[in-house]
Specification:
Keywords: DNA-binding, Phosphoprotein. One of its GO terms (molecular function) is DNA binding. InterPro entries: CheY-like_superfamily (IPR011006), NreC/VraR/RcsB-like_REC (IPR058245), Sig_transdc_resp-reg_C-effctor (IPR016032), Sig_transdc_resp-reg_receiver (IPR001789), Tscrpt_reg_LuxR_C (IPR000792), WalR-like (IPR039420). This is Response regulator transcription factor. It is a single chain. The radius of gyration is 18 Å and the shape is globular. It has two domains: 135 residues, Rossmann fold; 61 residues, Arc Repressor Mutant, subunit A, CATH 1.10.10. Helix content is 52%, strand content 13%. It is of the alpha/beta class. Helix 3 links the parallel strand 3 and strand 4. The protein contains ten helices and five strands. It has a five-stranded parallel sheet with strand order 2-1-3-4-5, sandwiched between helices.
Length: 210
């Protein structure tokens, strides 16, 4: 029996996915969480075999939480569940240690298939993402500018584009304001923008913001 934790801040979404998943006799929903704190508490107290994690959590970006979970539980499979298309976040999620990436528009049976596959120690990649990945390797698909960013730069970019101030970002990431400003300068250079307004527009045009 595969025990899973569903982490999403919307109760109706958790209920819907839970019902779909529970129809499979080999999977049981061991718990639910609506924020990062609840995810961490559940894993420390009970644990599970697979985490299904929404990329948009209220108290922490899902990718940031993923990074933390993989440091503490390196062998725990995490499937990222997102409203964003694969080309926007999937590659970055896999780089951070995700075992799978599923869009909320996917067929229900795809999530069940992904859960079973990652529980066996394998990665789950959808056919469409695999095809896009192959095209990028062959040089047929241009990579967006934000793919040049490091994990931390990408994280800071999203916070800036969402209206975060340097002091707020520094406190959230436990770094100095000077470091935040250094990241900001590198981000502007790599994404080829000259202002926060342009960066926000870039993020919106590339569907990087909720």
């Amino acid at each position: 029996m595969i025990r899973i934790l569903i982490a999403d801040d919307h109760p109706i979404v958790r209920l819907g996915w839970g019902k779909i998943i529970s129809k499979d006799a080999g999977i049981i929903v061991a718990g639910e969480a609506e924020n990062a704190r609840e995810v961490k508490d559940f894993l420390r107290q009970k644990g599970c075999d697979v985490v299904v994690l929404d990329i948009s959590m209220p108290d922490m970006n899902g990718l940031e939480l993923l990074e933390q979970l993989k440091r503490e539980y390196p062998r725990l499979p995490v499937i990222i569940l997102s409203m964003h298309p694969e080309e926007q976040y999937a590659m970055r999620a896999f780089k951070l240690g995700a075992s799978g990436y599923i869009t909320k528009q996917s067929a229900p049976e795809e999530l069940v298939k992904a859960i079973k596959k990652v529980a066996s120690g394998k990665k789950y990649v959808s056919q469409s993402f695999a095809e896009n990945l192959l095209c990028s390797f062959e040089g047929k698909a241009a990579q967006p500018l934000h793919e040049k960013l490091s994990i931390r730069e990408f994280q800071v970019m999203l916070m800036i584009a969402s209206g975060g101030k340097p002091k707020e970002i520094a406190q959230h990431l436990c770094i100095s304001v000077k470091t935040v400003n250094s990241y900001r300068a590198r981000i502007f250079d790599k994404v080829r923008v000259r202002s926060t307004a342009e960066l926000t527009r870039y993020a919106l045009e590339n569907n990087l913001l909720d």
